[in-house]
Design goal:
It is a single chain. By secondary structure, the protein is an all-beta fold. The chain has one domain (9-58). It has strands at residues 9-12, 16-23, 27-31, 46-50, 54-58. The chain has a five-stranded antiparallel beta sheet, with no helix packed on it.
Length: 62
């Protein structure tokens, strides 16, 4: 499994997606406002996801 990097888009838990803002040793902090339906889902703006629980959908162009 490939670890995400800052700026990557990841997918986790039933298709939710977000942009990685920070990479920690065991997890990443993800900005969920990337999703078009973010407001409809009634979620917090950011969340923490363990490296085991996501997959990289799109790598950062930077």
């Amino acid at each position: 499994m490939k670890k995400a990097e800052v700026g990557n888009i990841i997918e986790f838990r039933d298709g939710l997606q977000g942009i990685v803002e920070k990479v920690n040793e065991n997890s990443v902090i993800v900005d969920l406002t990337y999703m078009d339906n973010y407001r409809d889902l009634d979620l917090d703006q950011r969340t923490v996801i363990n490296h085991k629980n996501y997959r990289v959908v799109k790598e950062s162009a930077v």
